[in-house]
Amino acid sequence: MHETERFVRDLVWVVNSPLLMRLTSQDSVPARRLEVNDIDGEHLRVHLNSRPEQWVGRYFEHLVAYWISSIRRCEVVAHSLQLRDGKRTVGEIDLLFRDEQGRLNHWEVACKFYLQVDVNHVPITDYIGPNANDTLSQKSARLLKHQLPLGVRYFPEIEISEAFVKGRIFYHWHTGSKGPLPVELATDHLEGKWLRTREVPELLRDSRLRYRILRKPFWLAEELVDPSDDDILTTDETRLCLKTLIPRNPMG
Fold first, then answer.
1. What angle, 0 to 180 degrees and rounded to 10, lies between the N-to-C axes of helices 41-49 and 56-66?
2. DSSP labels for 14-64?
């Protein structure tokens, strides 16, 4: 996929994909969908290449900031602003901007990927990220109890505080029912599938299937695949690749 096309598709995904969590009112998020024709692809490419990023979360933040400043034409007051109490850093504001009505907005921005590990329980501690110490419960609590209140404490003129969180919840591929979902999750959140290491041979049983290993930071928009792409893998190639990527895990 051409670099510019990738950036454009990811920006459209950032704006149009459903929220992962519904923690705030979303009063300052425009209802109008972003269309490809709204985007100057070359301008976006130059903008992102001037600040190359390998971390998915930071790449997502850059795309959100670009949408707000270059497409919505809002005034960005601060981006990734560190807040200090004397010599001590107490937190960071992701985005501070004035919207189309002139209201000062504080947005905490995140792109998260969690696995549901127990279908029979509601607790959001049962949703874990690529880092096992990162859970849905920890993220939602930190947003509501620390990050968003911090903005108003330092900028009392803030009128709207939002948690702009996108991403995907992965459910075990053989699970027919998701079970009860925590109230923090948006009901229309995006979904994916996960499987255990020991289940990989079952996945690779059909030799007709083809695979692609996603590279950071390009985990956002759904993939478009051309069979001629040089990173498309056969089942045998995928099997060999996974052996190098997945550590031996007797519990898997």
1. 130
2. HHHSPPSB--S--TTS-SSPP-GGGS-HHHHHHHHHTS---SHHHHHHHHH
Token representation of residue 24:
């705030």
**CB of 21 within 8 A of CB of 187?**
no
Task: Find where tokens 């994909």 sit.
Answer: 17
Q: Is 12 strand, coil or helix?
A: helix
The structure tokens 């100057």 sit at 40
**CA of 22: how far to CAs of 42, 143, 212, in Å?**
33, 11, 31
Tell me which residue of 37, 23, 109, 36 sits closest to 68, measured CA to CA: 109
Q: Which residues contact 88 (CB under 8 A, 6 or more apart)?
A: none
- Identity of residue 170: F
Alpha helices for 90-184 (secondary structure H):
136-142, 148-154
Q: Is the distance from CB of 105 to CB of 158 less than 8 angstroms?
A: yes
**Of 21-25, 45-49, 173-177, which gets the smallest average pLDDT?**
173-177
- Please report the beta strands in 67-159, taking only residues with DSSP state E, as ranges in sequence order: 75-85, 88-98, 104-116, 127-128
What does the alpha-carbon distance between residue 236 and residue 220 come to, in Å, rounded to a whole number? 26
Please give the helix or strand (H or E) that residue 119 lies within, else none: none
pLDDT at 10: 97
pLDDT value of position 250: 43
The gap between the terminal CA atoms of the chain, to the nearest Å, is 33
Whole-model pTM: value is 0.89
In 3D space, the residue among 92, 94, 97 whose CA is nearest the CA of residue 82 turns out to be: 92
Least Cα distance to 100 among 160, 48, 171, 58 occurs for: 160
Place of tokens 């590279």: 215
| 3-class DSSP assignment, residue 185 | strand
